[in-house]
Structures are given as C-alpha cells and as structure tokens.
Specification:
The structure is a single chain. The protein has helices at about 1-35, 40-60, 65-70, 85-95; strands at about 70-75, 80, 100-110, 115-125, 135-145, 150-155. By secondary structure, it is an alpha+beta fold.
Length: about 170
Amino acid sequence: MRLFRYFCFVFVLSLVFVGCSDKSKKKEVHEEIQGPMMTLEKRDTTEVYDMTKNFLELLKSNNIDKAVSMLYYLTPDKNVIPLPDSLAERQKAIFKRFPVLSYKIDSIIFYTETDSQVKYTIEFFKKQPGDPRPNTTSFFIKPMRIQGQWYITMFDSNTYNGGETKIKN
C-alpha cells in the first residue's frame, strides 16, 4: 500500500513538471514568432537608406559639421531635438579620428519606431600591400521614426532609451 502511494505521488509530480515545462516552451516559441512591432513600407527603407547614404557622403567629402547636423537626440518625453553641443563635439572628434575614404552600408534592421539600426563599414586609411593593420571599422546609427518622420540618432548610451535594443546581431 505504501509503495502504491509513493508511485502515485511520483506520477502526479512528474505530470506537474512535464506540464510546466511545455508551457514555458510554448511561450518562448510564441515570442520568437512575433515579428516587428511597426508597419513599414518600401518608402521607409528607401528613406532610411537615402538618409544614411547622404550622411556617409558628407563624411566622405569631409563635411563633418553638416553630417553631424543630421544627427538627433531622443528626449525623455519622446521628442527629437538636434544633437546637444557636447555630444555633437564628441561625434565630430570620432569622425575626424576615423575619416571616411569609402563606405558600405551593411544592413538595415527595423524592429520598432525607436529601435532600428543601420550598420555601416568605413575604410579610414589606404592599406599598403603587406600591411597587417586593419583599415576598416564598423559603426551603427539608429534611425527613429517619430510622428511619421525619420531621424538619425547615434547608437550609444546617451540616447534616452539607453542605447538598448531588442535587435540581435
């Protein structure tokens, strides 16, 4: 009799564990299937691509001030303002340190209106044959669509959302 109770207890306990583990797996699958949280049209991709290309062409032609003037900042109340002076100066210093000789737009990923990214790679010096040093580096910018208008923000911790993203690289 005691053995029978023990087996019943183990059986019920096993059912509980199996039931709980199936629910967590189903929930994970549901989250993975869920796609982007915004509606996109072809013109959104085109607009972000064109903005990025214009930004990189300005950097390539060494027009750093004009390129930095294209950058914006998302405030805590979700307003977009031009990049504050302290951040603009920091970005100018980075762009002077890594001049754009050539560039390639690697990817554009859209997730939400304030969580999208563009990855681009630049060549910042001409490499001589046999030179082992890398002459390219990649950067990210973070396009945001606020009230139907696209803006370029920098992908760093100074943007209101902390630079966090749900995009997995």
